Amino acid sequence: MTAHIEAASPHTMNTYGRLPIALSHGQGCRVWDVNGKQYLDALAGIAVNTLGHNHPDLVPALQDQVSKMIHSCNYFHVPNAEVLAAKLVELSGMTNVFFCCTGLEANEAAIKLARKYGHDKGIDKPEIVVYEKAFHGRSIATLSATANEKLKKGFGPMLEGFVRVPVNDIEALKKATEGNPNVVAVFMETIQGEGGVNPMRIEYLKQVRALCDQKDWLMMIDEVQCGMGRTGKWFAHQWAGIVPDVMPLAKGLGSGVPIGAVVAGPKAAHIFQPGNHGTTFGGNPLAMRAGVETIRIMEKDGLMANAAKVGAHLRGGLEKALAGVQGVKEVRGQGLMLGIELDRPCGPIWSRAAEAGLLLSVTADSVIRLVPPLIMTIAEADEVLAILLPLIHAFFAEQSPT
């Protein structure tokens, strides 16, 4: 009998609250740990593994690219960078793209774009509207734009230049910016991910777009977690029929290969000039091939439609089974980005789900988050329900007074 392998990383900085699991390999929506235990993956590396694991079309393409060139640098043109940029322009209705490696970098670039936009207009101290419960990253700039005070503790002082408002309240936005000549942009997630899967309403998105047009502000929409087909459209804001001026992307764009992008419309596309911004690894040949192939496979296999269909089935199953359950506040989200908000912290469900063979996460302390690969089937969604629902019922039962 093979000895059990302990999952530990004693020489790695202790920056993550980890489960005692080390994953070895995956196939489709299933992964295995180093001890051979199988899990159904409803986390997808936090909305990253768009095509699941070991995809039969993606893997050979990446192997081919690795044999040709992994990295050059941005002193030279990268052919697939232009191919991917052109595709993102086509899908978004915008005009130009900057490539980087992560969502944090994409959001950092968006903040720099907004500030330079303001300086170019003669505004010495540009300010950006951000939101309650927002999460944009952990650098000092993106952390300053983020709402969570627990994440900021110990890293002050934060950057100035941010005006914070509640979600889905256009009057609050108008009031917070009234008479302020320094505002240059509104920066939001269409569906807040780390903040608890909180969607911006379609009407609100339209109102903000109109206000930005009226005030000559940049509308900057962070689609890092909710973009790339996860909601059933390429980008979640497209349900509102609007086009932003700046759109950071990352996560699912490379289906596991690190990639970030900032897509810009006409108002923002030419703010950066040579020397204003850059990155060593951004736009490298391997990441660009991953992005090109991810989108090609998504289109070929109809994965946006699948995300909408399977997501609706999964949400419907959750809503039906949890209706009237005391302690369940709301099931929300769209496509394969769903959150179940409970009326109390529910961290234990994270580890209990893993023990039961289901990978998910708990975010904002009390929201169970499901962001599986976009290849998930109806049958696999039913498996998620079969594992998760009893765990939720048991969690409430053990906390109820006898």
Ranges where pLDDT stays below 50 over 5 or more residues in a row are: none
Q: Roughly how many Å is the radius of gyration?
A: 21 Å
What is the chain-wise order of helices and strands?
A: EEEHHHEHEHHEHEEEHEEEHHEEHEEEH
Number of helices: 12
Question: What does this molecule look like?
Answer:
The chain has 402 residues and is of the alpha/beta class. Helix content is 36%, strand content 18%. It has 12 helices and 17 strands. The protein has a 4-stranded mixed beta sheet with strand order 1-2-3-15. Strands 6-5-7-10 form a 4-stranded parallel beta sheet, sandwiched between helices. Strands 13-14-17-16 form a 4-stranded antiparallel beta sheet, with helices on one face. Helix 2 (58-68) packs antiparallel against helix 9 (285-301), helix 10 (303-322) runs parallel beside helix 12 (378-399) and helix 11 (348-355) packs across helix 12 (378-399). The termini are far apart. The model has no long low-confidence stretch (mean pLDDT 97).
Quick overview of this protein structure:
With 402 residues, this protein is of the alpha/beta class.
List the helices and strands and how they pair.
Layout lengths: L22 E5 L2 E4 L4 E4 L2 H4 L10 H11 L10 H14 L3 E5 L2 H18 L6 E5 L8 H6 L3 H4 L9 E4 L4 H8 L5 E7 L1 E2 L5 E2 L2 H14 L2 E5 L23 E4 L10 E5 L20 H17 L1 H20 L5 E7 L2 E6 L5 H8 L2 E2 L1 E3 L3 E4 L7 H22 L3
Parallel strand pairs: 3-15, 5-6, 5-7, 7-10
Antiparallel strand pairs: 1-2, 2-3, 4-12, 8-9, 11-12, 13-14, 14-17, 16-17
